Amino acid sequence: MPVPCRTRFVVVAPVVAALIALGCVSGPGDEAGPGGEGDRPAPTATTPAGQDLEGTDTPQEFMEDVGDAERVAEAYWGAQFKKSGLEFEPVSQLIAYEREGEVDCGGQALGLNNAAYCSAGDFIAYDVNWAFEAFRQVGDAFIFYLLGHEYAHAIQARLGIQKEFSIDQELQADCMAGAYIGDTERQGALKLDDGDLKELADGLEAVGDDPGQPWFAEGAHGTAKQRTSAFEEGYEGSVEPCGLS
Ligand SMILES: [Zn+2]
Asked: Which residue in 60, 75, 175, 211 is deepest, having the highest Cβ count within 10 Å?
């Protein structure tokens, strides 16, 4: 994948700083099942590791972006719930892991090159090396998308949304990730540079299913085109097109 121009997501009004647990936290996980959700691997590396075009993709920046993305998602959904008169409980933990099996969700080891929301343990866990590599290759917008998508699964769990087919669950999460990014930008709390949307499109391209994947297959997420349009619906139209109620 070509390396796009690096652009920055700027969090204009950072919400209250929260400490996130990045590092080895053992997962109290439970029940990943097929719903333990596989968020497709990012593209295979074509960029030599260690390449840093503008000196902006350091591990420190990555950690800051992950933290920002989580705080923004938490504030966003907190406000949405409040608007609907619902209690909101933030996701309990954000766990970065480096080894297969380091985090367990319902007796199922989380694998490498993945990120997942584990409903029983109510945590989001991600392979930190994979996410960092995607951050370097695709850009920081991808981290906002990734966290936004996993956070959306946590919101679905809170709302008791369980679609019959995983693809519907996934495309709704993409729509919700779009709503969180679009609305936060409209509120002026997040500023997207021109290249950010391109980064997001690249990221969605990378995480789409192969076109031949049957749409009802277990674990299906949607093709790049389906995922991009679900994201765009939310990005442009907020949560309404996502069909949460
Ligand atoms: Zn997902």
From this structure: 175
Looking up tokens 């099996």, which residue turns up? 101
Q: How far is the CA of 156 from the centre of ligand 1 (A)?
A: 11
d(CA 225, CA 94): 29
Instruction: Indicate the SS3 state at residue 12.
Output: coil
Q: Are 176 and 80 in contact (CB under 8 A)?
A: no
Using the mean position of ligand 1's atoms as its centre, give its distance from the Cα of residue 116 in Å: 7
CA of 37 to the centre of ligand 1 (A): 5
pTM of the model: 0.76
224 CA distance to ligand 1 centroid (A)? 13
Which residue has 């299906």 as its token pair?
A: 220
Burial 8-36 (b: 16+ CB within 10 A, else e): bbebeeebeeeebebeebebebbebeebb
CA of 168 to the centre of ligand 1 (A): 10
Task: Note the pLDDT tens digit of each residue in 214-231.
Answer: 555 667 788 888 888 999
Burial of 84 (0-12, 13-18, 19+ CB in 10 A): exposed
119 confidence band (pLDDT: 50, 70, 90): very high
